[in-house]
Amino acid sequence: MKATVMTYGCQMNEYDTHLVESQLVSLGADLVDSIEEADFVLINTCAVRGKPVDKVRSVLGDLRKQKAQRGLVVGMMGCLAQLEEGQQIARKFEVDVLLGPGSLLDIGKALESNERFWGLQFKDELHDHIPPAPQGKLQAHLTIMRGCDHHCTYCIVPTTRGPQVSRTPDSILRELDGLLAAGVREVTLLGQNVNAYGIDQGARVAGIPSFAELLRLVGQSGIERIKFTTSHPMNFTEDVALAMAETPAVCEFVHLPVQSGSNAVLRRMAREYTRERYLEHIAAIRRHLPDVVLATDIIVGFPGETEADFQQTLDLYDEVGYDSAYMFIYSARPGTPSYRHFADLPREVKTERLQRLIARQKEWSQRRNAAKVGTVQQVLLRGDAFEPGFLEGHSRGNHPVVVPKALGADRAGIYPVHIGHATPHMLYGAVLGADGQPLPELPRLTPEAAALSAPLAML
Ligand code: 5AD
Ligand code: SF4
């Protein structure tokens, strides 16, 4: 069987795609890159906003045509699959295999079945499952917990991914050992709310570490860089900031979604903190990590958000001075409390506010990135950039970075990079040699010349 998995949504989904792909390989499938080559296409879906759902609809529409023409088998996994909305879509587009986020290990059973297979249970076996390490990669994701126990009124995730379940430290550290053996140098610990790690298992009481303790444990494993995402401000306690500061491998990067700067909106969102409390968290983080790089998520146009509420979000943005932000227009999701109880704002109001927020974010990202010009950043270069002759990667602070290929720095690795230029979304620099001077750049080839020289390069 030739299979391909298409991934939408967050890093949790990327991890789940890797997990299911490795199951497919162990079942004897060949992974292929395109739908045309495949006889099984699996779509890993996101349900957090209306847009990714529309995308899934349109892809499934195309796939249904191919089903009729050449007997393609079509599957849908991930968050949307868990919802009634997703199941209706699956029926409409004649999806053969449906796997919710808790049933991923049923992929084998699903493919054996001669009939439509829908797996929608949350199965414990997933929590101890260790997928094989990705090969030839310097970075990897590691899911440390699944689900979420908060109940933000706009969010569908508690429905799609269920209540929080933390993996055992033993299982996490074994997975990490495998990653290290495969040459991984940066790991991102993943969960809907990693800071609440262990709480569901009775943190400390049953010998399960807190998230701060887990960071220290992972920091002793020999991995060079540790990042984590994402955090709910209520669970971002000061011991986490302290563990970050005292564990050299943990990168100085915090993604702390604020969602809104207005207390009235935060209350309707059921975020469980006030603007003042959030700012105290930021101050504590900065006390322990003065050079921390801060990112956030913001929703604009939540029901009832007034111009004054929105101004408070802009003010909070200035007060924190975020390095970057993911900004979303509120999307009313069926099944959420805010969909049931509140009226949506007009689309024009929401888009106009988003434009103003994006402008604010750009100013700050430019200012923050410009402050990095002249510094040396340790950059994990992943591989070739879009532009021939350049490599791309990211810093410990998660800034995307581009450098020209240089003698001794023409492949993936972690290198010291002198930053020479910044835009709001990118740092540009040069790799430094042992003497602190930029390494000589390799001559740049046009794409045509690069294509011609490729066979030579392989000799
Ligand atoms: N509408 C808009 N954005 C949303 N998010 C979650 N639910 C919604 C929604 N209904 C955003 C939040 C969250 C991120 C993953 O997606 O900002 O942090
Ligand atoms: Fe990830 Fe949330 Fe989207 Fe699910 S709904 S894929 S958890 S962002």
UniProtKB/TrEMBL annotation:
It catalyses: N(6)-dimethylallyladenosine(37) in tRNA + (sulfur carrier)-SH + AH2 + 2 S-adenosyl-L-methionine = 2-methylsulfanyl-N(6)-dimethylallyladenosine(37) in tRNA + (sulfur carrier)-H + 5'-deoxyadenosine + L-methionine + A + S-adenosyl-L-homocysteine + 2 H(+). Binds 2 [4Fe-4S] clusters. One cluster is coordinated with 3 cysteines and an exchangeable S-adenosyl-L-methionine. GO terms for molecular function: 4 iron, 4 sulfur cluster binding; metal ion binding; tRNA-2-methylthio-N(6)-dimethylallyladenosine(37) synthase activity. One of its GO terms (cellular component) is cytosol. [4Fe-4S] cluster 2 binds at C148, C152, C155. Catalyzes the methylthiolation of N6-(dimethylallyl)adenosine (i(6)A), leading to the formation of 2-methylthio-N6-(dimethylallyl)adenosine (ms(2)i(6)A) at position 37 in tRNAs that read codons beginning with uridine. This is tRNA-2-methylthio-N(6)-dimethylallyladenosine synthase. It comes from Deinococcus sonorensis KR-87. The gene is miaB.
